[in-house]
């Protein structure tokens, strides 16, 4: 706890895993049930800054920065291949480095294909899944994917530049935070400015565009993710910003096809739902974990 405040203290750390110096935030009792928070594009563990203390009274909450994001450092000598298989491999090594044998997964955006690969590799470790705009179904891909699909079909310099302008530029990143948010002034500018600064570091823009190109392999894996749901039956909460142009509501509803007991909840906000609805999300997460993560 922060001294005198009653608010759990979040601390920052680094650990070597898979040849990568992984930065992570942590709060909560060391012996409490673990919740692993996996961020999305173009963010980092910073996106969980308000959620972590709201859960850390009862849970050990851990939020790493994926390679290529935030403050995780990948040595040049590592010759890291930036694809989602690689991200999942590094995150599994991260859980091993911390000795995590059982954990719930909070999956957002890129965190979904990363974390679901982890879950398929070790289904016995996963106590529950929270998917916050973390897609695993074709019908969840919105029209905003059109330029990215074009890039998949033809990775020409022109199409790569189009994706850069739409998603990796400052205006593209800001759009992801503010699009169809009832009150954009409620979204603090530090989030999208930090994201832009970090993804714009020398060499990092190409990493991001490589990951966008590799996302097509996540779509190809959707049937495997769905098979995992049917086979392992993890308790699942899909809590969704319903105005997200990238991952649209049918993607949340589709979970019930494979997990009839899944809880699906929609929030009147956009892609980065935590920026506007952290209290509602924290309540829903606590309800799921109280039943399944003890």
Please describe what this structure looks like.
With 294 residues, this protein is α/β, with parallel strands linked by helices. β5, α3 and β6 form a beta-alpha-beta unit. α5 packs across α6 and α6 runs antiparallel to α7. The longest helix has 29 residues. It starts with 10 loop residues before the first strand and ends with a helix.
Name the features:
294 residues; alpha/beta; Rossmann fold; 8-stranded mixed beta sheet; 8 strands; globular
Structure summary:
The chain has 294 residues and is an alpha/beta fold. It has helices spanning 52-55, 84-97, 111-121, 146-153, 157-168, 170-178, 189-199, 204-232, 249-253, 255-258, 274-292, and strands spanning 11-17, 20-27, 34-38, 60-64, 103-107, 126-131, 236-241, 263-267.
What's the SSE pattern?
Answer: EEEHEHEHEHHHHHEHHEH
Strand content: 15-25%
Task: Name the CATH superfamily classification.
Answer: Alpha/Beta hydrolase fold, catalytic domain
Uncertain segments of ≥5 residues (pLDDT<50)?
A: none
Pairing-aware structural class of the strands and helices? alpha/beta
At the fold tier of CATH, the topology name is Rossmann fold
- In DSSP terms, counting alpha (H) and pi (I) runs of 4 or more, how many helices? 11
Total strand segments: 8
């Amino acid at each position: 706890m922060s001294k005198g405040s009653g608010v759990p203290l979040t601390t920052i750390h680094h650990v070597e895993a898979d040849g990568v110096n992984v930065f992570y935030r942590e709060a909560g009792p060391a012996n409490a049930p673990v919740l692993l928070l996996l961020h999305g594009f173009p963010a980092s563990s910073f996106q969980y800054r308000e959620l972590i203390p709201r859960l850390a009274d009862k849970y050990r909450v851990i939020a790493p920065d994926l390679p290529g994001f935030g403050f995780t450092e990948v040595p040049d000598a590592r010759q890291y291949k930036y694809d989602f298989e690689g991200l999942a491999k590094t995150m599994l090594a991260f859980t091993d480095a911390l000795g995590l044998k059982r954990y719930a997964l909070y999956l957002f955006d890129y965190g979904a294909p990363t974390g679901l690969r982890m879950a398929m590799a070790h289904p016995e470790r996963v106590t529950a899944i929270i998917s916050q705009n973390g897609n695993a179904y074709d019908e969840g891909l919105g029209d905003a994917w059109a330029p990215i699909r074009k890039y998949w079909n033809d990775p020409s310099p022109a199409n790569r530049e189009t994706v850069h302008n739409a998603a990796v530029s400052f205006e593209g990143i800001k759009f992801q935070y503010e699009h169809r948010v009832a009150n954009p002034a409620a979204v603090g500018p530090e989030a999208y400015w930090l994201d832009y600064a970090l993804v714009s570091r020398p060499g990092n823009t190409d990493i991001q565009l490589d990951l966008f190109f590799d996302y097509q392999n996540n779509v190809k894996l959707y049937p495997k993710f769905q098979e995992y749901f049917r086979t392992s039956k993890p308790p699942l909460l899909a809590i969704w910003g319903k105005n997200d142009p990238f991952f649209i509501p049918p993607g949340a509803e589709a979970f019930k096809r494979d997990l009839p007991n899944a809880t699906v909840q929609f929030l009147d906000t956009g892609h980065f739902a935590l920026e506007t609805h952290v209290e509602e999300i924290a309540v829903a997460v606590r309800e799921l974990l109280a039943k399944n993560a003890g």
